[in-house]
């Protein structure tokens, strides 16, 4: 009987202890989760000024300087965009971010591309490359191949004398017809014919 009373007393004490723990107010700070590392804040960066190659342009050349004398380093195709880093003094050429060029940069001609709104600062262009070897021509050797053309005299044209074609006139017919009447000629011919006929008749007898 004494053992049962002791067991009941222990159970009552445990029950009161559990109830007191559950009803104890919990500090809000204890329940907050304290981060062990700093959580980075994601912030957007402005896109800045960009260029876009129009769709009607097949491509635009990218060079290592603002001019056609600079070397070609690549191309941008139609629809491609690139960030603008600067411009030439006149604004005809734009410095863009181009991976594969010197310092991942390149220059393009501004006329065929579309430029977004924004301020673009002037950038000092790189120096133009000079050829390592300048070709020189030996003046003495070149003089051997210089020839003076000999003037060719053109033939002079002398016009030929005009050809005169003579006109022939039947003088006998015209003179005879003009001096002797045709009737007299007929009579003479007829008379000669009659005489010849008489002679031939006489010879026949």
Describe this structure in words.
The chain has 205 residues and is of the alpha+beta class. The protein has a domain at 50-115: SH3 type barrels (Roll). 31% of the residues lie in helices and 16% in strands. The protein is built from five helices and seven strands, in the order H-H-E-E-E-E-E-E-E-H-H-H. The strands form two sheets. A five-stranded antiparallel beta sheet has the order 6-5-4-1-7, with no helix packed on it. A two-stranded antiparallel ribbon has the order 2-3. It is elongated, with a radius of gyration of 64 Å.
Overall mean pLDDT: 76
Number of helices: 5
Residue stretches low in confidence (pLDDT < 50, at least 5 long) are 26-32, 37-46
CATH architecture annotation of the domain at 50-115: Roll
Number of strands: 7
Per CATH, the superfamily of the domain at 50-115 is SH3 Domains
Shape: elongated
CATH fold label of the domain at 50-115: SH3 type barrels
Strand content: 15-25%
SSE succession: HHEEEEEEEHHH
Largest sheet: 5 strands, antiparallel
Q: Any chance you could write out the topology, listing elements then pairs?
A:
Elements (H helix, E strand, L loop, with lengths): L1 H21 L5 H4 L18 E3 L6 E5 L8 E6 L3 E7 L5 E5 L7 E5 L4 E2 L23 H6 L26 H9 L2 H23 L1
Antiparallel strand pairs: 1-4, 1-7, 2-3, 4-5, 5-6
Question: Quick recap of the structure?
Answer:
With 205 residues, this protein is an alpha+beta fold.
């Amino acid at each position: 009987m004494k053992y049962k009373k002791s067991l009941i007393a222990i159970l009552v004490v445990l029950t009161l202890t559990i109830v007191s723990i559950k009803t104890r107010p919990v500090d809000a700070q204890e329940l907050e989760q304290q981060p062990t590392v700093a959580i980075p804040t994601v912030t957007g960066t402005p896109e800045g000024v960009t260029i876009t190659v129009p769709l009607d342009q097949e491509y635009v050349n990218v060079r290592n300087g603002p001019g056609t004398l600079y070397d070609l380093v690549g191309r941008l195709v139609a629809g491609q965009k690139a960030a603008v880093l600067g411009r030439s003094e006149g604004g005809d050429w734009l410095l863009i971010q181009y991976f594969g060029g010197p310092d991942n940069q390149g220059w393009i001609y501004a006329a065929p591309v579309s430029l977004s709104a924004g301020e673009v600062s002037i950038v000092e262009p790189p120096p133009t490359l000079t050829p390592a070897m300048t070709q020189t021509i030996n003046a003495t050797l070149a003089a051997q191949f210089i020839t003076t053309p000999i003037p060719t005299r053109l033939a002079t044209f002398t016009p030929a004398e005009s050809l005169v074609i003579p006109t022939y006139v039947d003088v006998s017919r015209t003179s005879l017809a003009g001096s002797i009447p045709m009737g007299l000629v007929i009579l003479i011919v007829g008379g000669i014919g009659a005489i010849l006929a008489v002679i031939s008749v006489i010879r026949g007898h």
